[in-house]
Amino acid sequence: VGLITYMRTDSTRISVTAQEEAKEYITSLYGEEYALKEARNYSKKENAQDAHEAVRPSLVQKDPASIKAFLSRDQFKLYKLIWERFIASQMASAVLDTVSADILSGEAVFRANGSQIKFPGFMKVYVEGTDDGAKEEVGMLPPLEIEQQLDVNTINPRQHFTQPPPRYSEARLVKTLEELGIGRPSTYAPTIETIQKRGYVRLEEKRFVPTELGEIINEIMEEFFPEIINPEFTAKMEDDLDHIEEGKTYWSQVLDEFYGPFKTRLDTAEKYMQEVEIRDEVSDIQCEKCGKFMVYKMGRFGKFLACSGFPECRNTLPIVKEIGVDCPKCGGKIVERKSKKNRLFYGCSNYPQCDLVSWDKPIPRSCPKCNEMLVEKKGAKGKGPKVICTKCDYEEESN
Predict the structure, then answer these.
(1) Which residues participate in catalysis according to the annotation?
(2) Are residues 24 and 120 in the same domain?
(3) Does 325 fall in a domain?
(4) How many whole angstroms separate alpha carbon 203 and alpha carbon 196?
(5) How remote is the C-alpha of 60 from its chain's centroid?
(6) d(C-alpha 284, C-alpha 298), whole Å
(7) pTM of the entire structure?
(8) What is the pLDDT of residue 49?
(9) What's 71's domain CATH number?
(10) Are 121 and 18 contained in the same domain?
């Protein structure tokens, strides 16, 4: 049974039949005030693949809960996201009461914001940015009057530092490609798969990190083929291919315009490009099997140690990185490790004798309340990381 419509599309168009079915379903489940009085249509993106309508549930009556037992965990999460977003897109807008208060203290001005949902509308089903279950902490302000004198109860000093832009996740990379006009829905997944298969990037904590090979190739491409790797070139090529398909441009003309300058660049690269070799870096660790020194190798999941006596000796070892924190259970060293799915976690160097493990990064100090291990936990969307205790309820802002 097909639970959703054709998925390889970036269209925002919804059929009239689907809109009417959604309106009827919303009215029966939530009430007439939650349904749209007039159909809501979304603007079409330039060059959108609009042969098929937007991705939506094929039958809106099949709500996620009713078919959960027949789906895997990932299938259910994906269907739930599609179903909720589609239903929400066909519901009335939410209405919020928002209040801001400017509080003067000498020359300083403090602003407090509060909001309250007057009518939930589409928020009854779905709220953007809360897929992970994060809750908004903004509530209503207490009753205030103009020129009212306020007393200070507590002062909570907080220090914040500018954070570098986060590395691309798969979702963010796809969104960026879409914004730049690079690729199509049918090419996003193969592109992400290719850059990993070729060893240009690797995934660490669901973020892409460039490998040494990837950085070298990027430098060569920037030097000899700057036009080819320019996002504007790729976007224009996508447009040209669309125009060829639509009969607006001759393929021979597009090919001639591209191949002339490209051949010139290619000839220059062949003449001046130096042969690049990623040499093995010798470590100070001796092979436990043959006594030769181990060397650093680049593998599918990053660097690892291999015996320099290969192929006679095929011994390999993972690279263990200490994070400067002692294990609270046995006094060993906490090190970075990788799961079978290449997800980063932290464990004791004395494993398997010590079974301490944590997905969150431990920090080199103990909880001031219970003296247990503190870890740095990533914050919800739009919020910074926090330091929390692994045993009690202590937490603080991370610096």
Answers:
(1) 6
(2) yes
(3) no
(4) 8
(5) 28
(6) 17
(7) 0.53
(8) 60
(9) 1.10.290.10
(10) yes
CB 307 within 8 A of CB 313: yes
Q: Which position has the higher pLDDT, 357 or 242?
A: 357
Report the alpha-carbon distance of residue 377 to residue 385 in Å, rounded: 6
In 3D space, the residue among 355, 361, 357 whose CA is nearest the CA of residue 374 turns out to be 361
pLDDT in tens, 2-39: 899 988 787 888 999 999 999 999 999 999 999 999 88
Average pLDDT (124-130) is 76
Domain shared by 175 and 125, yes or no:
no
Distance, in Å, from the CA atom of 37 to the CA atom of 35, rounded to the nearest integer, reads 6
Q: Which two tokens stand for residue 89?
A: 């897109």
Among 393, 339, 340, 397, which residue's Cα sits nearest to residue 363? Answer: 397
Number of structural domains (the chain) is 2
pLDDT in tens, 239-277: 898 889 889 999 999 999 899 989 999 998 888 877 766
Among the candidates 248, 272, 296, a domain finishes at 272
Pairing state between β 293-299 and 281-286: antiparallel
157-to-63, 154, 398 alpha-carbon distances in Å: 46, 10, 13
Q: Look up the domain containing 195 and give its range.
A: 170-272
Chain segment 144-191, per-residue pLDDT in tens:
888 888 888 888 888 777 778 889 999 899 999 988 888 878 888 899
Residue 292 lies inside a defined structural domain of this protein: no
- On whether the CB atoms of residues 391 and 375 are closer than 8 A, the answer is no
Strands 201-204 and 316-317 turn out to be unpaired
Q: Report if residue 304 sits inside a domain.
A: no
3-class secondary structure per residue, 108-157: EEEEEEEEEEEECHHHHCCCCCCCCCCCCCCCCCCCCCCCCCCCCCCCCC
- Rg (Cα) of the chain, in Å, rounded? 28
Is 399 inside a domain boundary? no
Output the domain CATH number for residue 259.
1.10.460.10
Which amino acid makes up residue 124?
K
